[in-house]
């Protein structure tokens, strides 16, 4: 099969979250199993020179964005047996940052049209186009309305993967003609609650809808989780499936990771203690045996940060330290900064996202805390366990599917069900009790490190989905 993955970001070229990890590692895993994979992303300003120097210019074309005729350059390179294509337009993509601009709708209308137009000018001919999140949601829409009648497009199948249903690409009705060039008689594909909803368009037109965990596939049929799209999703259950994400086990490998102070393995855990000591020193915290909780997260409401805020001082009184890395809503950033000021020997806060520091926290922390209100998949808990750091999580989405409570002495973390600060605090207390029992804790650490969160099984499930569509 020839599979084209379309995403708004992909490691190692551009990244703001878990989507980039998936777009960078899933195609690599599928290609190892004998299929031809390509990935296409925008050519952002932030893509580093060491990557740009390997790019080859393919061609340039003109892309219609309603009445606009826009330049589009196409570049390519090979990496890990995957072909990468980059869509170039400096007006749209040569900016500081990936998203959050006033014209994001126009930028990704252009990108989606450019991807489909690109297929006329490259040698890679996809059997399946795998679209990801709202930024690529118009591809199956355009394919159905315009392209499937053209030579070379009629047999292409599409999948649409929901990485986070909260971000849907909703705009006023005027963009239908002003930007998208979609006739009024097709407006029903995209119209939802009186607005244009790009994700809804993909749900209507894609051949298969995928979410990034089985629990999340079930949850988004409920209005609590679906951000308004539950009504349409209930009518699409026949083409909805959940596949739990994996992580790149070669990249996240404590035996070889160059960013951590000491390498270690499940056969020799001494390096993990050294990683903890080095991390505490680097973050300016007291070096001792007190348990330290790592938080590597966007500091926003749906990540459960309000639960942490409610009982933070109680957790400190239990004897914990905190290493926090993230950015987000100012109310939460300000809270953690205040806690670091009040408890300078116990709380470290770094705002923003520093990939190297994230690995240091994964390796050096004793636990990772993820009390999410909703979590489509979550990768932090998997990465943490790869580094022998048990997670404390709320049972939702991919956290439910990847973390089993240690209450039965055979789990790989600590869980709680209700979205309640007291229940979270109880899970933290249970983690502390196990931490104080060193034999029990070492067994838990080893179980975490023995978990297989590779892409091997998930990639097989994606291949099955693609093959079934073609059959």
Keywords:
single chain; 471 residues; alpha/beta; Rossmann fold; nine-stranded mixed beta sheet; 20 helices
Notes on the structure:
- The chain is α/β, with parallel strands linked by helices.
- It folds into 2 domains: 2-246 and 456-470, 3-Layer(aba) Sandwich (Rossmann fold); 270-450, 3-Layer(aba) Sandwich (Rossmann fold), CATH 3.40.50.
- It is 39% helix and 20% strand.
- It contains 20 helices and 18 strands.
- The strands form 3 sheets. It has a 9-stranded mixed beta sheet with strand order 3-4-5-2-1-6-7-11-12, sandwiched between helices. The chain has a 6-stranded parallel beta sheet with strand order 15-14-13-16-17-18, sandwiched between helices.
- Helix 17 links the parallel strand 17 (391-394) and strand 18.
- Helix 4 (104-118) packs across helix 5 (138-147), helix 5 crosses helix 8 and helix 13 packs across helix 18 (421-436).
- The radius of gyration is 23 Å and the shape is globular.
Summarize the structure.
The protein has helices at residues 18-31, 49-52, 90-93, 104-118, 138-147, 175-178, 187-190, 198-205, 214-219, 223-226, 230-233, 270-283, 305-317, 330-342, 355-364, 380-386, 397-402, 421-436, 438-450, 456-470, and strands spanning 2-6, 36-42, 56-65, 68-79, 82-88, 128-132, 157-162, 170-171, 191-192, 195-197, 208-211, 240-242, 292-296, 321-326, 347-351, 367-370, 391-394, 414-416. With 471 residues, the chain is of the alpha/beta class.
């Amino acid at each position: 099969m020839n599979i084209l993955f379309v995403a708004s970001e992909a490691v190692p070229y551009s990244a703001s979250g878990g989507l980039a990890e998936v777009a960078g590692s899933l195609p690599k895993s599928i290609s190892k199993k004998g299929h031809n994979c390509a990935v296409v992303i925008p050519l952002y300003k932030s893509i580093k020179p060491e990557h740009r120097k390997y790019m080859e210019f393919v061609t340039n074309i003109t892309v219609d964005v309603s009445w606009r005729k826009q330049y589009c350059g196409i570049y390519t390179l090979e990496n890990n047996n995957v072909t990468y294509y980059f869509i170039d337009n400096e007006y749209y993509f040569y900016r500081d940052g990936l998203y959050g601009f006033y014209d994001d709708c126009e930028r990704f209308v252009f990108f989606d049209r450019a991807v489909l137009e690109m297929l006329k000018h490259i040698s890679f001919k996809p059997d399946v186009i795998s679209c990801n999140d709202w930024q690529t949601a118009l591809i199956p829409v355009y394919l159905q309305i315009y392209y499937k009648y053209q030579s070379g497009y009629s047999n292409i199948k599409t999948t649409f993967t929901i990485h986070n249903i909260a971000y849907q690409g909703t705009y006023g009705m005027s963009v239908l003609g002003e930007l998208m060039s979609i006739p009024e008689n097709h407006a029903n594909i995209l119209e939802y609650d009186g607005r244009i909803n790009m994700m809804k368009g993909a749900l209507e037109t894609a051949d298969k809808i995928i979410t990034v965990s089985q629990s999340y596939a079930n949850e988004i049929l409920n209005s609590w989780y679906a951000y308004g799209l539950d009504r349409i999703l209930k009518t699409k259950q026949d083409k909805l499936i959940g596949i739990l994400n994996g992580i790149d086990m070669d990249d996240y490998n404590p035996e070889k990771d160059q960013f951590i102070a000491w390498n270690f393995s499940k056969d020799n855990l001494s390096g993990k203690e050294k990683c903890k000591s080095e991390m505490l020193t680097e973050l300016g915290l007291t070096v001792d045996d007190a348990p330290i909780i790592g938080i590597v997260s966007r500091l926003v409401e749906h990540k459960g940060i309000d639960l942490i805020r409610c009982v933070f001082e109680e957790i400190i009184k239990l004897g914990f330290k905190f290493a926090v890395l993230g950015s987000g809503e100012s109310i939460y950033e300000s809270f953690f900064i205040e806690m670091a000021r009040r408890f300078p020997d116990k709380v470290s806060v770094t705002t923003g996202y520093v990939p190297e520091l994230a690995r240091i926290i994964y390796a050096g922390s004793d636990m990772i805390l993820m009390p999410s209100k909703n979590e489509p998949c979550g990768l932090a808990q998997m990465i943490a366990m790869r580094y022998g750091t048990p997670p404390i999580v709320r049972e939702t989405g991919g956290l439910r599917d990847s973390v089993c409570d240690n209450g039965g002495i055979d789990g790989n973390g600590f869980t709680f069900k209700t979205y309640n600060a007291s229940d979270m605090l109880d899970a933290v207390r249970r983690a502390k009790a196990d931490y104080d029992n060193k034999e029990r804790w070492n067994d838990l650490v080893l179980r975490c490190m023995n978990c297989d969160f590779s892409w091997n099984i998930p990639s097989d499930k994606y291949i099955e989905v693609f093959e079934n569509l073609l059959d």
